[in-house]
Write a structure and sequence with these properties.
single chain, about 160 residues, mainly alpha, two-stranded antiparallel ribbon, globular
Length: about 160
């Protein structure tokens, strides 16, 4: 079965657009480390696939995770995110960058919940997928989300330039 997920560029653009919008609402500069953290963490769930944007950077780790449970299992499950994000927040004493990490990671799951395969509710159950199942990888909606995020980013960057 072919796994349908959003493209890495769409995940990255979406997280950067949301994080930059938050920075703008707080009257901050949008070119910041927390925004970059949101972008990087939006790619992290795909560390379980060696051909993903982040998987190519850490191939041995990605290959190992992919060979054990497989793609879209552990790192794409809601219970893993619910465990990981509080650990990051608590270990950083709820720092701003940690909130941006959580935002990026959860934004990835939100977008993947729109895809045909959805996301896993639990890593402990094989049949526990949830989602809206509306979007094909590289399809019209995926491309529209990517373009909308680029337009938002362009607007925010020109507004602050």
């Amino acid at each position: 079965m072919e796994v349908m997920s959003m493209r890495g560029y769409t995940h990255l653009a979406f997280a950067l657009a949301v994080a930059s919008s938050i920075e703008t609402l707080q009257h901050r500069n949008i070119i910041t480390l927390p925004v970059a953290v949101a972008g990087i963490s939006a790619l992290m769930p795909d560390i379980d696939h060696p051909d993903s944007m982040i998987g190519r950077k850490v191939k041995p780790v990605s290959w190992f995770i992919n060979k054990l449970p497989g793609h879209r299992t552990i790192t794409h499950s809601l219970d893993f995110a619910v465990g990981l994000c509080p650990v990051v927040l608590l270990s950083s004493n709820f720092s701003y960058w940690a909130w941006m990490f959580a935002l990026g990671y959860v934004s990835h799951l939100l977008l993947d919940s729109l895809t045909l395969n959805g996301i896993k509710l639990s890593i402990f159950r094989q049949d526990s997928t949830i989602g809206f199942r509306l979007v094909r990888t590289g399809g019209v909606v995926d491309t529209a989300i990517f373009i909308a995020c680029l337009l938002i980013l362009s607007f925010l960057i020109t507004k602050h330039a």
